[in-house]
């Protein structure tokens, strides 16, 4: 059976759990990281030398990096509605997944650590203001995309891009800060909340 290692409050673990729910997969989940089982042990580092979660174990196959895990699980399940086989359609899904991981995540990191986690290492007012500004700017890109495409990031159909973007949208809505009124984003947020997987693993906190 598929095994997922990682603390259930982690945004990257939650995107994997949400993906598993969309696929109807059976799995076991073990809490690793933070106050749970350490990721610094030689045994865990043999699975992921970065000592980060999530990690999956699928038989003899071990994989880390949350977006890679989501793509693997969807491809293995043959769910072309979530990750198309056609190279151009698939590339569009992966484009937004990579943008979420590389650009959007980096924009909100300082603001989130300061305002939601109350980290004493993230109290510089200028860095906080810059993070909020950049985060909101990138969310305006999501707004424009939804206005152009419709209900979901790539159009009328839910895809794997919506799993990863949806997790970031939840974080943006839940973090106590000044944000623009982005009507398409908020409608998208409520639309995602109609999905059981999002209610279980997406809209379940701001962490």
From TrEMBL:
<protein>
    <submittedName>
        <fullName>Glutathione S-transferase</fullName>
    </submittedName>
</protein>
<keyword id="KW-0808">Transferase</keyword>
<feature type="domain" description="GST N-terminal">
    <location>
        <begin position="1"/>
        <end position="81"/>
    </location>
</feature>
<dbReference type="InterPro" id="IPR004045">
    <property type="entry name" value="Glutathione_S-Trfase_N"/>
</dbReference>
<dbReference type="InterPro" id="IPR040079">
    <property type="entry name" value="Glutathione_S-Trfase"/>
</dbReference>
<dbReference type="Pfam" id="PF14497">
    <property type="entry name" value="GST_C_3"/>
</dbReference>
<dbReference type="InterPro" id="IPR036282">
    <property type="entry name" value="Glutathione-S-Trfase_C_sf"/>
</dbReference>
<dbReference type="InterPro" id="IPR010987">
    <property type="entry name" value="Glutathione-S-Trfase_C-like"/>
</dbReference>
<comment type="similarity">
    <text>Belongs to the GST superfamily.</text>
</comment>
<dbReference type="GO" id="GO:0016740">
    <property type="term" value="F:transferase activity"/>
</dbReference>
<dbReference type="InterPro" id="IPR036249">
    <property type="entry name" value="Thioredoxin-like_sf"/>
</dbReference>
<dbReference type="Pfam" id="PF13409">
    <property type="entry name" value="GST_N_2"/>
</dbReference>
<feature type="domain" description="GST C-terminal">
    <location>
        <begin position="86"/>
        <end position="207"/>
    </location>
</feature>
<dbReference type="InterPro" id="IPR004046">
    <property type="entry name" value="GST_C"/>
</dbReference>
